[in-house]
Amino acid sequence: MSATFPSLMLEHARQRPTAPALREKVYGIWQTTPWADLALMVRRLACGLHAAGLKRDDHVVIVGENRPRLYASMLAVQALGAVPVPLYQDAAAAEYAFPINNAEVGYAIVEDQEQVDKMLELRAQCPSLARIWYDDPRGLRNYSEAGLEALDALVAAGQSHDASNAQLFDAEVARCQPGDVAAMFFTSGTTGNPKGVVHTHDTLLNRARAGASFDKLTAAEEVLAYMPLAWIGQNIFSYAQWLACGYVVNCPESASTVTIDLKEIGPTYYFAPPRIFESLLTTVMIRMEDAGRLKRWLFDRCMALARRVGPPLMDGKPVGMADRLAYRLGDLLIYGPLRNTLGLSRVRVAYTAGEAIGPDLFTFYRSIGINLKQLYGSTETAVFVCLQPDHEARADTVGVPIEGVEIKVADNGEILVRSPGLLKGYYKNAAATAEVLSADGWYRTGDAGFLAAGGHLKIIDRAKDVGRLHDPQGGPFDGAMFAPKYVENKLKFFPFIKEAVAFGDQREKVCAFLNIDFEAVGNWAERRNLPYAGYTDLAAKPEVLELIKDCVQKVNADLAADTLLAGSQISRFLVLHKELDADDGELTRTRKVRRGAIGDKYKVLVDALYGGKTEQFIETAVKFEDGRSGSVSATLKIVDASTFAPVKAAA
Predict the structure, then answer these.
(1) Contact 401, 385 (CB under 8 A)
(2) How far from each other are the two terminal CA atoms of the chain, in whole angstroms?
(3) What is the Cα–Cα distance from 490 to 474, expressed in whole angstroms?
(4) What count of other Cβ atoms lies within 10 Å of the Cβ of residue 561?
(5) Closest listed residue to residue 209, CA positions, set 382, 400, 353, 9
(6) pLDDT tens across 607-640, in order?
(7) Is the pTM of this model over 0.85?
(8) Helix axis angle, 5-15 relative to 35-51, nearest 10°?
(9) Element containing residue 148 per DSSP (H, E)
(10) What's the Rg (C-alpha) of the chain?
(11) CA torsion 489→490→491→493, rounded to 10°?
(12) 518-539: average pLDDT
């Protein structure tokens, strides 16, 4: 069925005008926008943009948290045949310069004063940026810059323009075709300038519908939209599938209230990258550390049962009556209240994607009765390539190819994909497009993997990151496979470890940088009356280093049982003196580690790890949240970790 985003919105408004389309929490109260009201808002915004001079194929930057009027603005831009370009709201102003200039953006619609300030700061660098509209007027009363107006003024202008051009909006929507460009997403690549990934209405909606069909989604679903609009995962789940299915999208009041809002909404369809699931689990473990002895004992006993019985129950496998009854009791005492505490008690389908999730983390959620599954895809594939069917969720695979998808593995192990959801191309970058799209329509994913039993796809790591150990002395692990992301995910399962960066390609052993989770380790320290003065001080405490060493050695023991990756055990590590930060160029905006950039920036630390040193002084320039620059320095202790002989598989 061919359609565009605006035409689907109008269809929902015609068929069920009073049904809720969007909800937003304002001053603690949920406000509902029905489909009919949304259609009217989009109409007025589109007419206002037309009056302001927006033309077909123009680009409009959208920046802010999830807000109903920003969603409506995207629809209004698309209704005129123009192209919304969502950007990350937490990016520094300088990071917007390349996308705005690359896409020749003349119009911006932003959320609040913070985003307005960034856009005004960029005007000297971005001469095409003429008009800026803002949704939230707080703090902007005395601003008088040319071309700056409230979104309310745009709506009012649109209402007037619509009154004198009654056929304009409907005619413009009718002109939109499924093959027209619908949106452009700038990748948060780990190297170089971001690339603008161009998608049509058809590519995005085709994959949205395929995913909805796979999981039997309906208009009755409830979704919480809290991830950045600039991330295509958020766009697919709370924009493309929202319009394809007609379910309700709920916008939290702020980033700080997400966990509260999650409990109040109780979504039935939930999507989050692994770091969110890691954060939720860390919160649970911190609370359990503070619980009484009896409660901790009960929790540990019930979780041991859950890890053994929960996944088979979720997968529909036979479980003995005694275990089934014990699990029901555990559900009454522990698992049910835990799901409710997490805000996931009503979840029917939950997905994680964006990067690999640690197997222990994945198993934890399925153990307590949450139907957490993995999917595989990327910005270039409109997300949905492989999904895990119910009863076939596995920690070590990312699912089976869904409707319309073909997969093959190249001779070098790279995954190739052919799908109706592939990008139209990279904007103004034919060379990069030719690198990833073959003449016969295959997309080179850059991921290394293979098709396992039952047609499930197994991803090892990014193809360019998979390496080999090289021991000049010809040790037992010389030539062994090294998959850094796999090792990093195992480390991050522990609530005390927030980030990990593993090194080892073409080296004789694996070493790692670690970030502690400040909240979890701080809580641990306070219970032991261990004083500290901030992150740098806490990270350097001998007691904390011993705590982290224990986590590393548990990972090593686990890796020793893995035939392929036993050589990836961590021989030496250090805990960094600062948290890795996107503002410092160490993470992408989707919090993927920029391993190459980190290796270059902290070369002195890498050399110290491999040079046998026991400590190393480092001073690092940092950017603070208020825009100021400064530095942080420390002498970091380097810790040797125990490694284990590979465990031979039973004959």
Answers:
(1) yes
(2) 54
(3) 27
(4) 13
(5) 382
(6) 999 999 999 999 998 877 666 788 889 999 999 9
(7) no
(8) 140
(9) strand 148-150
(10) 25
(11) 90
(12) 93
